[in-house]
Specification:
Length: 461
């Protein structure tokens, strides 16, 4: 009878334990004591414990931001967690032997605590603007010029602390994903921002194009070419040359087109031969000589000057020189190249000789004969050379005339003494003029021969 009572009591006890809605005594889940707790209560316990961790973002050892897991989009997946809890709860009494073991020895369960993630919450919370420290802007590398040293160099870039929101969000998500969701709750999750996450300056000191520019500029920036036009000088330096430097295909070079344009402009400003020229006569009149009549002056050899200028710049040299001339006069002051000249008025049958703007000599002359159609050529011509003595042989004649001072200026015509004449000036040239030469008294020819250098312009009108 006693045995029956014991069995009956045992069955009643087991039945009662089988039907209980709480965990047995001495039951733990993930190390937490859940004895006597309902699954719903265990759910609350685990939620509280597993969401205590904060997400800390640090930069250079300083804390920049702190968020809860929920603030960065991580919350407990309650349905999945409850399923795990209920599974553990069911295992306590899966059979009579298990039930007896659970009652006598207790249970220890390990279950995963799953999280669910909302990227929209992460995006709304995690922003660089929310960091404690303001961002430091990048400073790009740049080319600087030392005017005194005439030297280019590169000022290196300065790395700031700019960050992309998307990069930080990805870093936070990856860091949290790596540690949560197991059987043990995590302490605070500390995330250090790697230096590699900083936005790199747009222009670095290693930039090939920038270094090419610096090297190319330094190859030409010291070139100074001072053009001499008598007392007038034109300085060509880096202020102009810098605009001639071109870059293409990883190479730096001087623009041929721009150099030629400069030389062409130089010629346009300072060429004086074969240009229309105005002349103020001693008598006070202004005469305009056409391009074809103006055969005296300076003409820049544009091809030769281009080659010389290119060589000067490439040598990075400083030089003072005249342009390369195809034709040149005897001296100039800018565009004014007739400080000294011989002036002949056919109408007045008179000659004036100016030296450095001063009238130093004048004389009557006899020019080409009008009646014989051997007029003196009008225009401006340089004295081609000087010869003393000389024999002059007119065209179509065999006998020559000896003169002491011969200064030709155009196609067999020239200045010379005419000792066979007893008179000069007046209207002699109309019927008894020369073959085209300008006849002068011996003393006048001697003076001009000795004082007018080869190349002196002769102005005839």
């Amino acid at each position: 009878a006693l045995l029956v009572v014991i069995i009956a009591v045992s069955c009643f006890y087991l039945r009662r334990e089988w039907d209980r809605t709480t965990f047995f005594e001495s039951t733990t889940i993930n190390g937490y004591n859940v004895s006597g707790k309902k699954p719903e209560e265990v759910l609350t316990l685990l939620k509280d414990e597993y969401t205590k961790a904060n997400v800390l973002v640090t930069e250079g050892g300083r804390q920049e931001a702190q968020w809860t897991l929920a603030q960065v989009g991580y919350t407990i997946d309650e349905d999945a967690l409850m399923s795990g809890i209920e599974d553990a709860f069911g295992k306590q009494k899966s059979s009579i032997p298990v039930l007896l073991d659970s009652l006598m020895n207790g249970n220890s369960f390990e279950i995963d605590v799953p999280f669910q993630f909302d990227p929209q919450v992460l995006s709304s919370t995690v922003t660089v603007a929310s960091f404690a420290d303001a961002r430091v802007e990048n400073v790009d590398a740049k080319i600087v010029y030392d005017q005194a040293a005439k030297h280019y160099s590169i000022t290196p870039e300065v790395q700031g602390t700019l960050l992309n929101d998307s990069d930080i969000r990805q870093l936070v998500q990856q860091s949290v994903d790596a540690v949560i969701g197991g059987t043990e709750p995590e302490p605070d999750i500390t995330i250090a921002i790697p230096e590699s996450y900083y936005i790199v300056p747009s222009v670095l000191s290693t930039d090939p194009d920038m270094n090419l520019k610096v090297n190319t500029f330094n190859a030409y920036d010291k070139a100074v070419i001072t053009y001499v036009f008598g007392e007038e000088k034109i300085v060509l330096d880096w202020n102009t040359i810098c605009d001639w430097v071109m870059f293409e295909g990883g190479q730096g070079y001087l623009s041929e087109e721009k150099i030629r344009e400069y030389v062409m402009g130089l010629a346009g400003n300072y060429n004086t031969i074969y240009y229309q020229r105005s002349f103020h006569t001693t008598g006070g009149n202004d005469i305009v000589f056409s391009e074809s009549d103006n055969n005296y002056g300076y003409l820049i050899d544009e091809e030769g000057e281009y080659a010389q200028l290119l060589a000067d710049i490439q040598a990075n040299t400083q030089t003072e020189r005249e342009p390369v001339y195809a034709y040149s006069g005897i001296g100039r002051h800018g565009r004014d190249d007739m400080a000294s000249y011989v002036e002949v008025s056919i109408g007045a049958q008179h000659l004036w000789f100016y030296k450095e703007y001063q009238l130093v000599y004048e004389t009557d002359v006899v020019t080409g004969c009008i009646a014989k159609n051997t007029p003196t050529q009008t225009g401006i011509f340089p004295i081609a050379y000087k010869e003393s003595p000389a024999t002059l042989i007119p065209s179509n004649e065999t006998n020559g005339t000896k003169v002491q001072y011969w200064m030709p200026f155009f196609d067999g015509q020239g200045l010379h003494d005419a000792t066979w004449r007893s008179a000069f000036g007046g209207q002699i040239y109309q019927t008894n003029g020369s073959h085209g030469c300008v006849n002068m008294p011996y003393s006048a020819a001697e003076y001009i021969f000795n004082n007018a250098e080869t190349g002196t312009p002769v102005v005839l009108y």
